[in-house]
């Protein structure tokens, strides 16, 4: 493989690592705000790295521009969506998880 | 060249696997917001998988589908959070 292909595979692998961190956070974290945190940060970074790998892998000029546009779009909209969901949860009066919840349960 | 495309396809499959892992939260989420967050992550993983398959198979037209999917995913999250806050008065 050429060095460019190594760079593409490395970018996609790091993106897949952050995607896996986001999925584990979605399943394992205790309440809606921490899950929104995992979804907005880890998944956005994984998306940006992986779409950068796809933009490098596609050699056509117009398709590379489309991939970069998709990257910028994901970078803007993904945290905005997580913020809107967390704000809706806060408007409905869902209390954040604290350590006292953990102590009271066990 | 063959193993490079296979590596990109394998990473796309890993993202599909992460979306299936996030599907657990759609079923088990205590509140509606957990479910919307999990569906949002699944849509993001779908966009990434489409983009990686587009890069691996050298089909640039798949990126249009990924763009439209990302747009609809963002619209779905915003619409569901507005729907939850205003109890159905979103439009």
TrEMBL record, chain A:
Protein name: Na+/H+ antiporter subunit G
Transmembrane segments: 6-27, 48-76
PANTHER family in the cross-refs: ANTIPORTER SUBUNIT MNHG2-RELATED
Matching InterPro entries: PhaG_MnhG_YufB
Pfam families noted in UniProt: PhaG_MnhG_YufB (PF03334)
UniProt keyword list: Membrane, Transmembrane, Transmembrane helix
Listed GO MF terms: sodium:proton antiporter activity
From TrEMBL, chain B:
Classification via Pfam families: MrpF_PhaF (PF04066)
Superkingdom in the source lineage: Archaea
GO molecular function annotations of the record: sodium:proton antiporter activity
Swiss-Prot/TrEMBL keywords: Cell membrane, Membrane, Transmembrane, Transmembrane helix, Transport
Membrane topology: Multi-pass membrane protein
PANTHER family: NA(+)/H(+) ANTIPORTER SUBUNIT F1 (PTHR34702), NA(+)_H(+) ANTIPORTER SUBUNIT F (PTHR34702:SF1)
Protein name as annotated: Cation:proton antiporter
Organism whose genome encodes this protein: Haloarcula rubripromontorii
């Amino acid at each position: 493989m050429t060095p460019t292909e190594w760079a593409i595979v490395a970018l996609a692998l790091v993106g897949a690592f952050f995607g896996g961190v986001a999925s584990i956070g979605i399943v394992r974290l205790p309440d809606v705000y921490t899950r929104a945190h995992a979804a907005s940060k880890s998944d956005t970074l994984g998306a940006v790295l992986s779409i950068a790998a796809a933009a490098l892998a596609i050699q056509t000029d117009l398709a590379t521009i489309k991939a970069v546009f998709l990257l910028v779009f994901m970078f803007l909209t993904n945290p905005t969506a997580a913020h809107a969901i967390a704000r809706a949860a806060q408007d409905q009066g869902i209390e954040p998880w604290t350590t006292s919840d953990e102590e009271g349960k066990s | 060249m063959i193993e490079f495309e296979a590596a990109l396809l394998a990473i796309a499959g890993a993202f599909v696997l992460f979306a299936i892992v996030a599907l657990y939260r759609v079923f088990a989420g205590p509140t509606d917001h957990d479910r919307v967050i999990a569906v949002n992550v699944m849509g993001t993983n779908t966009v990434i998988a489409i983009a990686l398959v587009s890069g691996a198979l050298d089909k640039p037209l798949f990126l249009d589908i990924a763009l439209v999917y990302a747009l609809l995913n963002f619209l779905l999250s915003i619409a569901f959070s507005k729907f939850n806050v205003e109890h159905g008065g979103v439009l």
